[in-house]
Design a protein that fits this description.
By secondary structure, the chain is of the alpha/beta class. The chain is about 30% helix and about 25% strand. Strand 5 and strand 6 form a beta hairpin.
Length: about 160
C-alpha cells in the first residue's frame, strides 16, 4: 500500500510542474497570475511620453518585426489595447533596475525606476510572448494577465570565476 502511494505521488509531481504557466528567467521577485489575457495584435499601440521610453519602444518594435513580422504604432495616449512604457527616472539606491509589469485584459503597463528597469520589463514581456515562431503564428497573441514586480538582487551584474 505504501509503495503504491509513493508511486502515485511520483507520477503527480511532473504534472504539478507543467501546471506553472509563467516561466521567466531570471525568476522575478514577485509574480501574481491573473485571469484572462491581453490580445497583442497589429492594432495595439505603444504609449510613450519621452525620449527614454521612445528608445525602449523602438527596441520592442524591432523585436516584434524580426520575430513576428509586424511593428506597433507609437502614440502619446490610448484608451485601450496599448502597451504603456513609463520610466520614472528616480534614483533609489539599490533599485536602479527595478520595474513593474502589469498585464490586464485591456492594457500592458511597464514602469521602470530607470531606463534599465524599463528595458528589463520589456525583456520580461518578450518572455511572455509565444516561443514557437511559425507561419501560422500570427497575431493576435494571447498574453496571460499577470502582475510582476522585480528588482536586482545585487548592486552589480557580473560573474566571479575562481580558477585557483
Amino acid at each position: 500500500m505504501r509503495l503504491s502511494l509513493y508511486f502515485f505521488i511520483y507520477l503527480l509531481v511532473p504534472f504539478s510542474v507543467l501546471g506553472q504557466a509563467i516561466n521567466i528567467i531570471p525568476q522575478p521577485a514577485e509574480i501574481k497570475p491573473g485571469k484572462g489575457n491581453f490580445p497583442l495584435n497589429t492594432s495595439t499601440v505603444i504609449v510613450v511620453k519621452n525620449g527614454v521610453d521612445d528608445n525602449a519602444a523602438d527596441f520592442l518594435n524591432e523585436y516584434l518585426k524580426q520575430y513576428f513580422g509586424f511593428k506597433l504604432k507609437k502614440a502619446k495616449v490610448a484608451a485601450s489595447n496599448y502597451i504603456q512604457l513609463t520610466t520614472l527616472q528616480t534614483l533609489v539606491p539599490g533599485k536602479e533596475g527595478a520595474y513593474s509589469l502589469i498585464v490586464t485584459t485591456k492594457s500592458i503597463s511597464i514602469q521602470g525606476q530607470t531606463a534599465s528597469g524599463t528595458f528589463y520589463g520589456i525583456q520580461t514581456l518578450i518572455q511572455l510572448l509565444p516561443v514557437e515562431i511559425r507561419d501560422s503564428n500570427r497575431p493576435p497573441f494571447a498574453i496571460n494577465t499577470v502582475t510582476i514586480n522585480d528588482a536586482p538582487r545585487f548592486a552589480y551584474r557580473g560573474m566571479h570565476l575562481d580558477v585557483g
